[in-house]
Specification:
This protein is mostly beta strands. It is 6% helix and 48% strand. The longest helix has 18 residues. The protein starts with a helix and ends with a strand.
Length: 404
């Protein structure tokens, strides 16, 4: 009986394989609209090619099939969202999700095209419940929402080699993802570059983040992640924020340059490591450790101003705008911090102490740091680690050199 059932199952599978529609190649030029071309993809998936041209839309383009790749002819394939009621340009979503919360689509990809919007449109690309989603070489700009907005795209989302600019919200917004890769993208003049929340295992490496109206990277309720080798410059807010129970995150080998507020803000982060980063021209703080942050390591970083040698600074002490002045700051500890290792860093040319606290802290070990020319504008240059006297702390073996 078991043998008979086995062969019947094989026969049924063979019949299904013969009758199921195979994946197809769809040339969008042969269809009356882009939506018609997308609708021509069967459930088994396919490749949709969109030739160069300007394609104006007023309603979202719906992608409803798995195993589907949408490819343009580079930036010359330009999808222009004319919607002024907050609708996205693309919606990638299982068609049965409203009635089946477990519905998922697998392996939807977009590459080599431009998607632009306007300040009254929504997201550039909104994706929900797409597993192994992949964006490559996509230009996404001028949307009223975020450039790419992913919700519960849990399994292995990837964003690579895209340019994401001038969006009113985030460049990339990720909610509920894991094993995330965001690599080698350019973000410019969005409100925030990237927001990742309620997720884990974010790898954000080799990105250029420039000129943001708000903050650079915001990570919330996320753990086990790494930000490395990123250039994050000129945010009106803060370069990197870790908040809402972040833990086990490494921030390493990033250049954190020229921010009106701060460099890295550990608002609520535990067990995190900051190493081999360069902080220059951060106006209020280079690193802030919030009262809800514990057991963190800050080691091997450079905190500096625009000193270029021979007693010269690249930028003046005063300028027409704050962004034009020479500036360097150290590490700010809020009262209540418990557990911090601050060792092996270089602090030079700062207007602040190397590290200072706003109240009582405990379990802080500060050692083997080099301090040159800190508290430049202060009459009292003697206290370079202004940590509250109470609590169990240790400050020792730091080399301190004050300029005359």
């Amino acid at each position: 009986m078991k043998t008979l059932i086995f062969y019947l199952c094989l026969h049924a599978a063979a019949i299904h394989a013969q009758t199921a529609t195979p994946p197809v190649a769809v040339d969008a030029a042969k269809y009356p609209s882009l939506q018609a071309a997308l609708d021509a993809v069967p459930a088994s998936g396919g490749l949709v090619t969109i030739p160069p041209g300007n394609y104006e839309i007023t309603q979202p383009l719906l992608v409803k099939t798995a195993e589907t790749r949408i490819v343009g002819g580079g930036a010359a394939t330009h999808i222009i969202n004319k919607n002024a009621e907050g609708a996205p340009a693309f919606i990638l979503r299982p068609p049965t999700l409203d009635t089946d919360k477990k519905a998922r689509l697998w392996r939807v990809q977009m590459a080599d095209l431009r998607v632009s919007g306007n300040e009254k449109s929504g997201d550039g690309i909104f994706a929900e419940c797409i597993e192994e989603i992949y964006f490559e070489g996509v230009s996404i700009d001028h949307h009223g929402g975020s450039g790419i907005h992913m919700v519960n795209c849990a399994e292995d989302p990837r964003v690579a080699d895209c340019i994401i600019t001038y969006n009113k919200k985030c460049g990339v917004e990720i909610m509920g993802g894991h094993d995330i890769v965001v690599n080698a993208n350019h973000f410019e003049e969005n409100q925030d570059a990237l927001r990742c929340s309620d997720s884990f295992n974010l790898c954000m490496n080799g990105n250029n983040v420039d000129d943001h109206l708000g903050n650079g990277v915001i990570i919330e309720n996320t753990y086990g992640s790494v930000l490395s080798g990123n250039m994050i410059e000129e945010c009106n807010g803060t370069a990197v924020i870790l908040d809402r129970d972040c833990y086990g995150i490494t921030l390493s080998a990033n250049v954190i340059a020229h921010h009106l507020k701060g460099g890295i803000d550990l608002r609520d982060a535990c067990g995190c490591t900051l190493s081999a980063n360069t902080f220059v021209l951060a106006h209020e703080f280079s690193v802030r450790v919030g009262k809800d942050s514990e057991r963190n390591t800050i080691s091997g970083n450079s905190f500096c101003n625009t000193y270029i040698g021979a007693g010269m600074d690249k930028r003046p002490a005063e300028a027409k705008t704050p962004m034009g002045v020479d500036m360097g700051t150290g590490v700010l500890l809020e009262g209540g911090v418990h557990g911090l290792l601050l060792t092996g860093n270089t602090f030079s040319g700062l207007k602040t102490p190397a590290a200072w606290s706003t109240g009582e802290v405990k379990g802080v070990l500060i050692s083997s740091n080099l301090c040159i020319g800190c508290r430049r504008d202060s009459a009292d240059k003697g206290i370079l680690f202004a940590i509250g006297a109470k609590g169990v702390n240790l400050i020792k073996d730091n080399l301190e050199e004050n300029e005359p």
